[in-house]
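Progress note, sequence design subtask.
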């Protein structure tokens, strides 16, 4: 059979795929979106979205990827026998390249904050910390440097290959990430007044619930599980024939949710202990939190600093396992479709993403006029992918697998040729044919304010 390498171990499969899913989406985006949408009530809706949309969506990409045993574009082609469906793969590769471009900028900010909290230049009053962020983000050189550095870190993992690069990095980074998270959660929850933050996360208040909350939860589920760019499809092409796909999908969704909730338990107790508003929005981790850590641990300044260092290290690790997965989609594509050596394919992607990252970085303050439709390029890329390209990729994938793919092949792949999870197939089929497309269409209509 094929010479194609894949993940060597079962743990490797889970940790690498969970590494893709767990990222800034969990540690940075989830807490602020949950904060803006009323905490516990949002989380309940979010869990519903994971079950009805997230897990079936993951399964669809797993099925196409493992069956296709190739890069995303060819996997869609192989499954249907029709070249037209390659376009879904191409769309995914394009989307993940754009995501990598702007995601690396935010990840680069995390590197700078890790550096600054280590050397001690991040401490000062609230005004200082707020100014620190705006001065740094609008500097023409520094953020570009860190963003490109982040892409290069990703590059050097990718060129080592699937097993020695991606799988090994995930096996090292994911356990460290988990330990860091637990340490910070314990420190945050032992602060006086922390209980209020915990209550915010576990006691639902349904009075705020409206369709915006539902649709935010849906969008968050998509981004957080890395759905819609054929990213999971590419990883699934490295799974073994024995991997129990439904079980793997459930485990990864569970890990992803667990890390998101732990991130909430790390951030909200500290936020409430200091008395800041939980609904701060995206600037929460760069503007509010450095100060929250200092104030929360005023009695023990050294501990406050250590916590800040651990927190930014955690963000860097979480982001890195995600950028690796975004990079791999394009690298696998260039390697297999253009027959280039893996190293050269990786350089193509690294170069394209670095250029995009520099432009995105400059667009948030250093250079006037790098904007599209009145938004900075960074915001534009973020919105374009999250609100348009990801749902589109998910929608097309679901329609493809529900209505165009050979259903016997789908069943064989889902059940490992009838050896596992046979009873799940009809439920899965119903979900991808009807429920997932309708829900995604709803998100779409909401995004474009047609609803
Ligand atoms: N899921 C990651 C996070 O939560 C981000 C990510 C990685 C992603 N790969 C992706 C998002 C592919 C969309 C598509 O941060």
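Output:
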């Amino acid at each position: 059979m094929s010479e194609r390498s894949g993940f060597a171990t079962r743990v490797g499969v889970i940790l690498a795929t969970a590494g893709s899913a767990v990222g800034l989406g969990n540690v940075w985006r989830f807490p602020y979106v949950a904060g803006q949408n009323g905490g516990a009530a949002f989380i309940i809706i979010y869990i519903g979205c994971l079950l009805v949309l997230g897990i079936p969506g993951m399964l669809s990409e797993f099925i196409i990827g493992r069956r296709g045993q190739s890069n995303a574009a060819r996997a869609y082609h192989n499954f249907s026998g029709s070249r037209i469906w390659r376009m879904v793969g191409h769309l995914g590769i394009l989307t993940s390249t754009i995501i990598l471009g702007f995601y690396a900028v935010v990840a680069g900010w995390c590197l700078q904050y890790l550096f600054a909290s280590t050397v001690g230049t991040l401490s000062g009053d609230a005004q200082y910390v707020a100014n620190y962020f705006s001065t740094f983000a609008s500097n023409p050189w520094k953020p570009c440097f860190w963003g490109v550095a982040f892409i290069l870190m990703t590059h050097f993992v990718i060129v080592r290959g699937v097993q020695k690069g991606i799988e090994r990095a995930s096996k090292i980074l994911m356990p460290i990430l988990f330990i860091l998270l637990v340490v910070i959660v314990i420190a945050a929850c032992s602060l006086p007044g922390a209980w209020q933050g915990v209550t915010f996360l576990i006691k639902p208040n349904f009075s705020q619930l409206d369709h915006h909350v539902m649709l935010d939860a849906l969008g968050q589920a998509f981004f957080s599980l890395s759905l819609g760019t054929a990213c999971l499809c590419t990883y699934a092409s490295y799974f073994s024939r024995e991997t129990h796909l439904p079980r793997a999908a459930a485990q990864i969704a569970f890990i992803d949710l667990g890390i998101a909730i732990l991130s909430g338990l790390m951030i909200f107790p500290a936020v409430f202990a200091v008395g800041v508003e939980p609904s701060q929005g995206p600037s929460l981790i760069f503007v509010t939190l450095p100060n929250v850590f200092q104030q929360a641990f005023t009695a023990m300044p050294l501990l406050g600093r250590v916590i800040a260092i651990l927190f930014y290290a955690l963000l860097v690790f979480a982001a890195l396992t995600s950028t690796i997965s975004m990079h791999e989609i394009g690298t696998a594509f260039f390697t297999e479709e253009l027959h280039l050596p893996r190293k050269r394919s990786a350089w193509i992607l690294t170069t394209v993403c670095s250029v995009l990252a520099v432009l995105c970085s400059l667009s948030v303050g250093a250079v006037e006029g790098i904007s599209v439709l009145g938004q900075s390029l960074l915001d534009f890329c973020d919105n374009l992918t999250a609100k348009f390209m990801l749902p589109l990729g998910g929608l097309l994938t679901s329609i493809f697998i529900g209505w165009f793919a050979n259903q016997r092949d789908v069943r064989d792949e889902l059940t490992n040729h009838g050896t596992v999870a046979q009873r799940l197939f009809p439920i899965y089929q119903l979900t991808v044919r009807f429920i997932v497309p309708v829900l995604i269409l709803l998100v779409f209509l909401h995004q474009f304010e047609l609803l």
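The chain has a mean pLDDT of 91. Work on this subtask will continue into the next period as scheduled.
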